[in-house]
Amino acid sequence: MWTAILTIASIALIAGLGLSLASRHLSSKEGDLVEQVNDMLPQTQCAQCGYPGCRPYATAVVEDGVAINLCPPGGDETIQRLATLLGRDSLPLSEIMVPSVAVIDESLCIGCTHCRNACPVDAIVGAHQLMHTIIESECTGCELCVTPCPVDCISMKPLT
Amino acid sequence: MSAPTYDLGTLHGGLRLPANKSVSTRQPIINAPLPSQLVLPITQHVGDPAQPIIGIGERVLKGQLIAEMTGSLGAPVHASSSGKVIAIEPRPVSRRNGDNAPCIIIECDGKDEAIQAADAMPNFTEISPSSLLRAILQGGIVGLGGAVFPTAQKLMQARTCDIDQLLLNGVECESYISCDDMLMRERAGQVISGAQILMHALEIDKCLIAIESDKPEAIRALGGVLGEMDDSRITLKQVPTIYPSGGEDQLVQLVTNREVPSGGLPSDVGCLVQNVGTAAAIHDWIIDNQPLIARITTITGDGVANPINVRARIGTTIEDVITLAGGYTDRARQLIIGGPMTGKSVTTDRVPLVKSTNCILVSSETPSAEPEMPCIRCGDCASVCPVQLLPQQLFWYACADNEIKLREFGLIDCIECGCCDLVCPSHIPLTVNFRVAKGRIRELADEKARAVRARQRFEARNDRLEREKSERECELRNQKDLAKKAGPSAIAEILKRKQQKNEDDS
After folding, report:
1. How far apart are CA A77 and CA B22, in angstroms?
2. Do A104 and A93 have their domain in common?
3. Among A97, A130, A148, where does a domain finish?
4. Tens digit of pLDDT for each residue in A6-59?
């Protein structure tokens, strides 16, 4: 009987040691998960989630368990995919957003560079006291340039 | 005469369609008279639109370059006749997406005055293959089988691969269309000459001309010319009449028994396929110095009085060529540009005939009114699919908008031949669904690419801001260090100088 107990106990010990080693050295890195979540986000860098960009939000979702429904540009589709990936419940979207791009009314622009500095993806061209314009193909429609403009010459144009 | 040979590979599925070709092959090709106005779309090819280089009011001559190629993939456009440019504006055209496209409109003066060639093209065998390719590029030549892929770029791409044979596609497998058949009958010499030019450009010495077995006259005509020329590099190959054996990949499989890989090109298996019409157009440009300004088109169907093949100038309206075929009959119900399987139904005949227009079909049948029923998963569609896809599964995933599964089941390889539609007992418009799903997949891929670029730009910007910040800090530290090194007396000196300056200013 003692042999049996000893055998079982030693098997349990070896397996336990093996598992603890494996969990220490082969653990799925959290960084990978952040990367995966970041890949699913639309990369508009709009900060509407309350974090300064898509990667910071991805990090917050993975590490701090922040809600997954804070990304308006991503829409319901992104929430569904995040829910599947992270094994969380799907939530209704906090706010609905139409895909759009920013447009500068160039006749009103005074060249203050405020919008240029606010753009998270460097999609605004312009120098101090010279007219600015938006590179439409690079604009993510994050609306971060709209508020800083002192003459309100930036508007959002929905993408058709 | 080299005898047609039969040793063939096999094609999965396919259908035997009623040919309906004999009605339009009774008469020789008719040369269409000059129209009063030409409408030339600047996009008649796959790739970037051509850029107009003439002004409104300018007089142009036949064969003159009026819009030049832009970007890395495209083809130029030439004036089909002499006359005055009266407008460059959007006009209705027949194409898959959108109904209006920018066109150059020329008011013909009826003189049909041709532009004088700068210098005569030397014998093509004496110039290098690469300069021959450049010459072909300038002729505005595109694949005339219907895909309108710019020929020169296709050849250039093929030259980067290990090509060992040229296939000339004379397999006009779709019902009703007979323009390639008539071309081979009447202009066999030009087709063979075009093949020789293509072989020289590709530096290969094997060419197979594939012709369907239901075109004995064309086989005889080509065989006769081949016999006279005694060019042992070119062989005629007869293929069975099965739709869609004329599809590029299907033809390669059928004639050479090599399977083009998924998402690949025939050049991956050492073949280059060109339509016989394209070969003749290359002959016209390289030997006769005439760019692609006319093409042969079949006007057929029970909706026209006298079905024929016409050789019309690019830019002639469909209305004009239908008049040549005796006009509409009382039974005309539907106007289709292209064949009955892959063509596009249009609602107006005021659209121009373009480089891709191989057939104008006036049908007496209205579009199928049979109600769509649920899929019963009979699998008939899978047994006829020439690409060996599973249309019933694809349909399932297309309805569910499941992009990953659609990719996995090879939607991208669907050639939209329409065989599955035809056999479906539930009358499900499968091809239409697949076309929409393909568009959706492309859209998603674009979105993904945009997101990746946005992320790269965001990260680059963050790096830059970080770098600028540390540079500023570094600079500040350096200045502080310098001041410390100079000692308190130096600082007092500087402060005194500054005070002095302030007093002077005030």
Report:
1. 54
2. no
3. A97
4. 999 999 999 999 999 888 777 666 668 888 898 888 888 888 888 888 889 999
Closest CA–CA distance from residue A124 to any residue of chain B (Å): 12
Q: Do A138 and B461 touch (CB under 8 A)?
A: no
Domain identity same for A121 and A65? no
Say yes or no: A121 contacts chain B, CB-CB below 8 A.
yes
Give the CA angle between residues B228, B188, B26 to the nearest 5°.
125
Q: pLDDT digits over B283-321, tens only?
A: 999 888 889 999 999 999 988 999 999 999 999 999 999
Q: Is A100 on the interface with B (CB under 8 A)?
A: no
* Probe site for chain A from B458, B461, B466 (most A CB atoms < 10 A): B458
Residue B381 in tokens: 């569609």
Task: Please name the residue of chain B whose CA is at the shortest distance from the CA of residue A118.
Answer: B461
CATH topology of domain B22-310: Rossmann fold (3.40.50)
Nearest to A139 by CA among B443, B445, B454, B455: B454
* Cα-based torsion angle of the residue sequence B245, B246, B250, B254 in order, rounded to the nearest 10 degrees: 60
Q: Which residues of chain B have pLDDT under 50?
A: 1-2
| A45 touching chain B per CB within 8 A | yes
Q: Which residue of B has its CA nearest to A55?
A: B455
Q: How far is B473 from chain A (nearest CA, A)?
A: 20
The CA-based angle B367-B373-B378, given to 5 degrees, is 110
Q: Chain B: residue nearest A44 by CA?
A: B454
Measured in angstroms, the CA of A4 and the nearest CA of chain B are apart by: 51
* Smallest CA–CA distance from B446 into chain A, residue: A137
pLDDT given at position B120? 63
Number of domains in chain A: 2
Structural domain span for residue A39? 29-97
